[in-house]
C-alpha cells in the first residue's frame, strides 16, 4: 500500500488580474507549497483537462464566467486543489466613427470626426488614416479645420486604457471624400411658366447631396438673403412684385462654407 502525504493546498495565480475582454489571453500559474518535481492537474468548470504544465494560457473568445482550479502531484504526495479562481470575460467594447459633415466634403471646409465608444468616456484614443496611426490625434474628436485633398482617405479609431492592455475593437472605416470643385446648385420653380397672382410659387435649390445644408435665397430687388433649413422656398399668394430674378446657394459648418450661387431663375407673375 502507498500512503499519500498531503502537500497542502496548491496556490493559483492569474494574470491579468483586472478586467478581461474577449480576445484577451489569460495565463494561470499553479504553485506548489514546496518546490520539487511536480506534475500538475487542472480543472475548468469542474471538468478535468489534459494539461500537466505549471502554467496554463487560454485566449477568451466568448463572454461569460469560467472557474479554474489546479493541484500538484508527485509520487506518494499530492496537494489539495487550489481555491478556485473565477474569470469574468466581457464583450470587448466597440468604437464607431461619426463624421460631420457626413460623406462628401469640399476643400476649405471644417471636418470633425468623433470616436464614439459604447462604455464610458475614460479612454485614450487612437486615430488611423488608411491604417496608419495619426500620432498628433489622441482625443475623442479629431478636427480638420481647413480640409484639402490630402485629407481624403479611410479613417478608423479605437480606445485604449491601462497603458494599452485594455482596448476596444477597431471601428469600421469611414471614407472621407474631398472635392476640389466648389459645388453649384440648380434652381427650379413650380410652376415653371408664368404664375397667376394669388397662387403659390415654390422654388427648389437642388444639390447632389442635400442633407446638412442651410439654403439661402436672393432676389435682385432684395438687399438680404432669405434662409431656409430645407431646399424649398415657398411664395404664398404671389403678387406682381414677387416677379423677377432669383438665385440660391447653400452653406454648412462653422465657419460657414458656402457653395457657388446658382444661375439666375426668372419668375414671371401675371394678373388675372
Automatic annotation (TrEMBL):
GO cellular component: external side of plasma membrane
Residue ranges of coiled coil: none
UniProt cross-references to InterPro entries, sorted A to Z: Ig-like_dom, Ig-like_dom_sf, Ig-like_fold, Ig_Fc_receptor, Ig_sub, Ig_sub2
GO biological process assignments: cell surface receptor signaling pathway; immune response
Keywords: Disulfide bond, Signal
Any Pfam family hit: Ig_3
Domain of life: Eukaryota
The keyword Disulfide bond is assigned to this record: yes
GO-annotated molecular function: transmembrane signaling receptor activity
Segments forming domain Ig-like: 93-179, 185-250
Name of the protein this chain belongs to: Ig-like domain-containing protein
UniProt source species: Pygocentrus nattereri
Top-level taxonomy: Eukaryota, Metazoa, Chordata, Craniata, Vertebrata
Amino acid at each position: 500500500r502507498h500512503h499519500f502525504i498531503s502537500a497542502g493546498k496548491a496556490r493559483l495565480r492569474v494574470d491579468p488580474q483586472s478586467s478581461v475582454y474577449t480576445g484577451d489571453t489569460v495565463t494561470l500559474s499553479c504553485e506548489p507549497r514546496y518546490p520539487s518535481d511536480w506534475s500538475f492537474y487542472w480543472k475548468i468548470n469542474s471538468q478535468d483537462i489534459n494539461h500537466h504544465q505549471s502554467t496554463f494560457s487560454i485566449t477568451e473568445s466568448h463572454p461569460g464566467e469560467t472557474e479554474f482550479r489546479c493541484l500538484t502531484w508527485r509520487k506518494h504526495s499530492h496537494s489539495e486543489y487550489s481555491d478556485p479562481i473565477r474569470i469574468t470575460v466581457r464583450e470587448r467594447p466597440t468604437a464607431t466613427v461619426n463624421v460631420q459633415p457626413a460623406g462628401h466634403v469640399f476643400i476649405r471646409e471644417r471636418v470633425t470626426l468623433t470616436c464614439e465608444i459604447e462604455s464610458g468616456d475614460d479612454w485614450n484614443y487612437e486615430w488611423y488614416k488608411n491604417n496608419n496611426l495619426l500620432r498628433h490625434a489622441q482625443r475623442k474628436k479629431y478636427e480638420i479645420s481647413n480640409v484639402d485633398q490630402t485629407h481624403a482617405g479611410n479613417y478608423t479609431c479605437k480606445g485604449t486604457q491601462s497603458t494599452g492592455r485594455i482596448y476596444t475593437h477597431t471601428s469600421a472605416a469611414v471614407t472621407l471624400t474631398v472635392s476640389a470643385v466648389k459645388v453649384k446648385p440648380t434652381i427650379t420653380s413650380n410652376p415653371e411658366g408664368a404664375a397667376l397672382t394669388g397662387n403659390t410659387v415654390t422654388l427648389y435649390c437642388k444639390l447632389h447631396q442635400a442633407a446638412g445644408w442651410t439654403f439661402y435665397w436672393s432676389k435682385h430687388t432684395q438687399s438680404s438673403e432669405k434662409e431656409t433649413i430645407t431646399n424649398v422656398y415657398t411664395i404664398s399668394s404671389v403678387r406682381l412684385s414677387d416677379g423677377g430674378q432669383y438665385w440660391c446657394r447653400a452653406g454648412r459648418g462653422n465657419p460657414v462654407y458656402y457653395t457657388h450661387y446658382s444661375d439666375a431663375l426668372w419668375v414671371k407673375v401675371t394678373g388675372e
